[in-house]
Amino acid sequence: MLLALAATATAHAARVSDFGAVEWSEQVMRFFSFRDPSVRYAVVGAVLIGICCGVLGGFVVVRRMALVGDTLSHAVLPGVALGFLWTASKDPLAIFIGASVAGLLGTAMVRAITATTRLKEDAALGLVLASFFAVGACLVTMIQRLPTGNKSGIDKFLFGQAAAVGRDDVVLMSVVAVLVVALVTAFYKELLVASFDRGFARAGGLSVAWVDRGLMLLLAFSVVVALQAVGAVLVSAMLITPAAAAYLLTDRMHRMLWLSAVFGVLAGLLGAFFSFIGNNLPTGPLMVIAASLVFVGAFFFGPRHGVVARWWRQRDHAARTQRENTLKALYRVCEEREFVGEGVTYRALAARRGETEGDAQQQGRALLAHGLATVSNGTIFFTPEGRRRAAEIVRNHRLWELYLTNSANIAADHVHEDAERIEHVLGEAAVRELERRLNYAERDPHGRHIPSAAEIHQNAGHSRAPDLGQ
Which fold has domain 37-241? Predict the structure, then answer.
């Protein structure tokens, strides 16, 4: 479908938005009509680049090969120049071959340097990146000084220009995109195990070296086809940024690859769109900016690893810890009077916690809001759920104190603070294991009773729940 969209065009403008000064609304309508050849090629190219870079970028990120991708994107520039000199024209196939050979030569040099010298990989990558890019920049400058050099368009490979993408470029991008998706799908298991557990892969008879070489070959192909639109300077960002955003949103590799491809396509489309509606705005940098905005969104609003989600979980944990500490204080007050009388006044709670009655009232309202207590005439009463949770917290605290004194030989007067932290995170499975290891002890190091599971469930339903009132 993408090829059919692009095949009707025979020429393209110098820039995606090279159509004169018109209203932005007209530009938007014109973009979505796809009647301009440069728009069709730019959109198709952006989608294909997003797929290639997104899928392979997932492996770049999980393998921690970000600098390798950056080196590869800079190392291909001499090959681009030599491919142009080979045919004396901007032949996509010649440039593709030259750039691919240069990129693979650059990665081979990195391996040779690390294998034969004391230099680490990061130093070798930096050396090759700078050297190859310097050679490529010199060759591009030489080409531009030729009689037809200024019209060659070779300079667009430095910073990219999606409007310079032609039909032959789109065909080449399509072939590479199909190749990338097909090979990653066919060898997904091999790529997965080689990325996460290389020792296990070797033990299973998998040739990790050949998997690495195949991945580098696909990376080289993707980098080369993306150069025209994004440029050698920025193409590594299209490999890393969408995949990094996807990495923050999921812990499953197959989902990460899908998300990375979607984000890459989205960044490409947004870059092409804003380049079109703006006046002479470059497409490549806008694609990278769009990908960066996607990453910023994942960084702040990701459901698991986002800053907002982490802040909310920390806030929720702090509030839950506060409620459980209040429940424990109520339980201790009831325990000290041997559970005679069911309610605890605000004054008694405040005295127990060393706080003001105003603080105690605020804590009582929090328990009321979560169904852990009821309040009547300035007295707090456990609900069955509140009584159960209070007894569990007390049990967790005392079991952990006993475990530290028995197993870690820590003095009984030094275990309270550690138990204060661990009591809120112990799960039932861990509690059962502690009970077994401690032979179902009934007393903590201070001689206080440890509520058993049977007592907790038996007594949870005995709490009075009077009519609600303040």
Answer: ABC transporter involved in vitamin B12 uptake, BtuC (1.10.3470)
Q: Which residue, among 400, 186, 156, 373, has the nearest Cα to 285 in the 3D structure?
A: 156
pLDDT for 182-209, tens place per residue? 999 999 999 989 888 888 888 888 888 8
Torsion angles phi and psi, residue 380, rounded to 5: -100, 135
On the 0-12 / 13-18 / 19+ scale of CB atoms within 10 A, 370 is middle
- CATH topology match: 37-241 vs 311-462: no
Write down how long the chain is: 470
Tell me the residue ranges of DSSP E strands in 334-396.
Answer: 343-345, 373-376, 379-382
Question: H/E/C letters for each residue in 198-220?
Answer: HHHHHHCCCCHHHHHHHHHHHHH
Q: Identify which of 249, 338, 255 has the alpha carbon closest to the alpha carbon of residue 294.
A: 249
The answer to whether residues 328 and 395 touch, using CB atoms and an 8 Å cutoff, is: no
Question: Is the domain defined by 311-462 classed in CATH 1.10.10.10?
Answer: yes
Beta-bridged to residue 96, according to DSSP, are none
Task: Tell me which H or E stretch contains 357.
Answer: helix 357-369
Ordered alpha helix ranges (H), 380-467: 384-407, 416-422, 428-437, 453-459
Cβ–Cβ under 8 Å, residues 52 and 229? no
Closest CA relative to residue 99, chosen from 117, 79, 124, 82:
79
pTM reported for the whole predicted model = 0.73
Q: Does the pLDDT of residue 427 top 90, yes or no?
A: no
Q: What is the pLDDT of residues 80-90, one digit of tens each?
A: 888 878 876 67
Buried b (16+ CB within 10 A) or exposed e, 18-36: ebeeeeeeebeebbeeeeb
What pLDDT shows up at residue 163?
63
**Can you say how many angstroms the Cα of residue 328 is from the centroid of all Cα atoms in its chain?**
38
Among 388, 397, 365, 363, residue whose Cα is nearest residue 455? 388
Question: In the numeric block, which tokens belong to residue 97?
Answer: 């071959």
Burial of 84 (0-12, 13-18, 19+ CB in 10 A): buried
Phi then psi dihedrals of residue 190, to 5 deg:
-65, -45
Residue appearing with tokens 């810890």: 321
Please list, in sequence order, all residues whose beta carbon lies within 8 angstroms of the beta carbon of residue 274, skipping any fewer than 6 positions away.
281, 286, 290
Each domain of the chain, given as residue ranges in start order, spans: 37-241, 311-462
Q: Residues with Cβ < 8 Å from 48, sequence gap 6 or more?
A: 2, 170, 173, 174, 176, 177, 225
